[in-house]
Amino acid sequence: MQSSAKDRKFLVFEVHGSLYAFDLTHVSEVVDPLPCWPIPLAPAFCSGAVQIHGSIVAVMDLAAFLGLPQCPEPRKMIVLVKDVAALAFQVARVIRIATLQEIEVHNTLEDDFTCSRLVLAEGEARLLDISKMVLAAEDMMK
d(Cα 69, Cα 84) in Å, to the nearest integer? Predict the structure, then answer.
C-alpha cells in the first residue's frame, strides 16, 4: 500500500555531531550493533557483514562512507529494506522519526548524496538519497 506524500516520515540520526535523515520507506529496522564478519579486500568504510533474520547484510560505517572519520563506537545500525539493498549503516545514534507536518523541507543538491535539508526542532538534517548511496557503494566495492 502506497502512502501519500503528506504521510511521509523520516528517520533522523546523528553522525559526528551532525544530523542526517533517511526516508523511512527505505528503512527496515534499527538495531543495536552486531558483531561483524570481515569482508576480505572491502573498502575501509565497509565494517563487514552480519546475519539479520536469516539474510547476510553488508555493514557500512556511514561516517567513513561520507568521508568523515570512522565512527569510534557506533550505537545503532540502520537496516535498509531488502528491496533497496542488503545493507546496514552504523551511526552514532538515532534521534527520532519525524513527520512531514513537523518539518520544513529545502531542496538542495549540495553534495552527491544530499537531496534535501530538513529543518527540525533539533536543527537541520541532511536527507540522504539512499539510491545514490547504494549505487556508489556498489561501484566502490568492485
Answer: 26
